[in-house]
Specification:
alpha/beta, Rossmann fold, five-stranded parallel sheet, 5 helices
């Protein structure tokens, strides 16, 4: 099993891609923390996975919640190896393209939430000798819908910055479809840590 002995926090794991990721990680031998604002659904996911999973309440926009989740993870499982920053909202139902309220809400979940996750996961990973952070971005980080695009573009650049700062370039991989060869220093040959597109 590829993740035997690893401990992972997965945000937004009470449904969708987060749940699928948690199940896959558990199948591969990891202990998983189902971290989500949806407590009932999150507990159901953890119960279905079994003893290798536990639920922790997490509103990704609240810094104190992130601190508590990381602390609970290291207290219960003894360490933290992997963070999957999966939680996100699209804002697709928002009618007003220039809604300030929608802008703040989408940025808080999709960008600030990722920042808080990184902020609290890295010290725990350093204490454990290293780890992996997987930030889910989007091809929409380069194209249309303004608030969502801006939030996902922020995730891309945040990931690149933290990879350089912590010298993680050799240990992971940034992938996105390209229509033409890139001359960017962030090409696959140069950097192998950055967001997985969704």
């Amino acid at each position: 099993m590829r993740l035997a002995g690893k401990v992972a926090i997965i945000s937004g794991a009470a449904s969708g891609m987060g749940t699928a990721t948690a199940r896959m990680f558990a199948r591969e031998g990891a202990k998983v923390v189902i971290a989500d604002v949806l407590e009932h659904e999150g507990r159901q996911v953890a119960d279905a996975i079994g003893p290798s999973a536990r639920f922790e309440p997490l509103d990704v926009t609240k810094e104190d919640d992130w601190a508590a989740v990381v602390a609970a993870t290291t207290r219960h499982f003894g360490k933290l190896d992997v963070l999957v920053n999966n939680a996100g909202i699209s804002g697709s139902a928002e009618q007003d393209f220039y809604s300030t309220e929608a802008w703040h809400r989408i940025m808080a979940v999709n960008a600030t939430g990722v920042f808080f996750g990184i902020k609290y996961a890295i010290p725990a990973m350093i204490a454990n000798g290293g780890g992996s952070i997987i930030n889910l971005s989007s091809i929409a980080g380069e194209h249309v819908h303004m608030a969502y695009n801006a939030s996902k573009a922020a995730v891309r650049l945040m990931t690149k910055s933290v990879a350089v700062q912590h010298r993680a370039c050799r240990n992971a991989w940034w992938w996105r479809p390209r229509r033409r060869p890139s001359r960017s220093p962030w090409s696959r040959q140069a950097v192998r840590t950055a967001p997985r597109d969704r």
